[in-house]
User: What shape does this take?
Amino acid sequence: MLWGLFGGKRERQAHINSEHVLTVAPGQDLLSAGLEAGLPWPHDCRQGNCSTCQCRLISGKIRARTDFETVLAPDQLSEGIILACQSELRSDVEIEVALEADRPAVPVVHCTGTIRAANALTHDIVELVVTVPGLEHKGLAGQYAELSYEGLAVPRSYSFAKAPSNEDPDELSFYIRKVPNGEFTEWLFAEDRVDTSLKVSLPYGGFRYHQGESTMICIAGGSGMSAIKAVLEQAALDQVERNALFLFGARTQQDLYGQEAMEAVRMAWHPEYSFEYVEVLNMEPEDSDWSGPRGLVTDHLKAAYVETHALDIGSAQGYLCGPPPMIDAAIVVLEAEGMSTEQIFFDKFLDASSIPGGRAGG
Ligand SMILES: Cc1cc2nc3c(=O)[nH]c(=O)nc-3n(C[C@H](O)[C@H](O)[C@H](O)COP(=O)(O)OP(=O)(O)OC[C@H]3O[C@@H](n4cnc5c(N)ncnc54)[C@H](O)[C@@H]3O)c2cc1C
Ligand code: FES
Assistant: This one.
């Protein structure tokens, strides 16, 4: 048995589905140990908010970092369901979890990178390019990395803004929006950070392309362009045989960016299928020169595609990325128009303000 000493406390073992044995360090959560070992453990937020990482504790003791009751139902709690991303081990445990059969098992790696560039895309969004020597990027388009600088207590999550095969081999690109009073983003925007060292861990997250023949309806807002762009770039590289519609919601023309990248996706899309990119503004001054659609992306989706019967939403797949309220609103519309919950994939950009009780440690 692998009992060892680690920081003065004992490592513990987690027996997963009676098949895999994980060694979990003191202070480490069960999900992190699983991902570092390369298990395709379902997860999204890693902050105790989405419940995607849920699993069943068959035997043993854990310490819950957050209150599971906020995301798990009473019957789940009584069945021993726990959140792996918020569970530290107090003893060896036996766990049952539905691992993802269709996701490649890529172990999470921890590296050191250097900021190569921070290119302004809008007044509050930068493209951050990080060089990681020797990086072998095996993540999927749609997944994310965790970034932190020296002294930041809790790393922050940022989605890959490029399909991995479109990146230079030792680089990672992100689109990062400045959040007022946000610790990481205020630091990033405060001064020229080129050549600053960052800790980088990757890949994380379950958001990615899903096979299908139906139209992909993609909706993003703000820096949520990043993960959708990466997924669409990958779909274009793979020459998927299906149509795609991407609705990008922003406040004003000042908040628009990425048009060249979207044109590149359109040019690279399978020639027998359509790729349409539409920008929708909801706070553009009435008297401006904007001739494109106005209002919320979801209203535009209904007016321009549902009511005109230009699109059968019930048979399409949804890909949503960006601020949680926008995603919640889009899910309501897509489901009301007949899209099944299983065909809606999303990546919520949760931050400390959208997590009950803020962010532990940060
Ligand atoms: C899977 C995932 C992918 C993401 N990808 C991206 C991406 O590609 N691009 C991007 O721009 N962002 C992305 N995010 C969001 C990103 O991880 C950060 O949360 C965001 O950049 C804010 O970080 P910050 O340190 O600047 O702000 P934080 O310090 O985390 O604060 C955020 C806001 O919460 C407020 N706040 C702080 N503490 C509390 C508290 N206790 N209670 C209430 N409010 C509080 C702050 O004042 C601030 O307004 C993603 C998030 C997730 C979960
Ligand atoms: S609650 Fe654990 S990954 Fe979201």
Remarks:
- The longest helix spans residues 225-237.
